[in-house]
Specification:
The chain is an alpha/beta fold and 194 residues long. Helix content is 36%, strand content 29%.
């Protein structure tokens, strides 16, 4: 098993990352090559694409976030956004000159429509059905990063701090990174942090 893990870590993997933000104006898709694992992970960007959503889709997502629509609309938006996320994934793959069968994995954050880390119990909900993405692209798709983080006691935002540590961690220098978005946050990466 150790030998297999080392082989996988040495091989290059092509991965599409999908995310949309609180502005609900579209989905960002990045195609990257990954090599290694843990602190030795290296990431090389290959292509980036933003798929803007039609105004009616954007307004529908904002209505969901403001609790102005019912469960039927939530269910339909989940499938609709899954299809749009798949479209964005296929677009970034084509932009880079690859075919879907040459891609190893899609990771989709989804569209957050409710995030209650201080709730009782803590909870969160992202839509953009990963099964729809996988079916439309033919690529293994993973999702539910926020819910997985909250299930182990986190605040539901595991990706930015990990990437900040991987990209900006340093043995002798502490760094502070500011993520400016619909909701801004700060990551502190202490010197020598493992």
């Amino acid at each position: 098993m150790q030998e297999l893990s080392e082989k996988v870590a040495k091989e290059c993997r092509r991965v599409v990352g999908l995310i949309s933000g609180t502005s609900a104006d579209g989905v960002d898709a990045a195609l990257v090559e990954l090599r290694g694992s843990g602190a030795d992970l290296r990431c090389s960007p290959l292509a980036f694409e933003t798929l803007r959503w039609p105004d009616v889709v954007r307004q529908g997502v904002l209505d969901l976030c403001e609790d102005r629509v019912g469960i039927d609309q939530l269910c339909q938006a989940n499938a609709q956004l899954g299809a749009l996320f798949a479209e964005a994934a296929l677009a970034v793959i084509a932009r880079a000159g690859y075919k879907p069968e040459e891609i190893d994995l899609i990771g989709s954050h989804g569209q957050t429509v409710r995030h209650l880390p201080g709730g009782d119990p803590p909870s969160t909900l992202q839509i953009g059905d990963a099964s729809v993405i996988a079916q439309r692209t033919g690529i293994v798709t993973i999702a539910d990063f926020r819910t997985a983080d909250m299930a182990v006691g986190g605040q539901g935002a595991p990706l930015v701090p990990l990437v900040d540590w991987l990209l900006f961690g340093h043995e002798k220098q502490s760094r502070v990174l500011l993520n400016i978005g619909g909701i801004s946050n700060v990551t502190i990466v202490p010197a020598g942090e493992s």
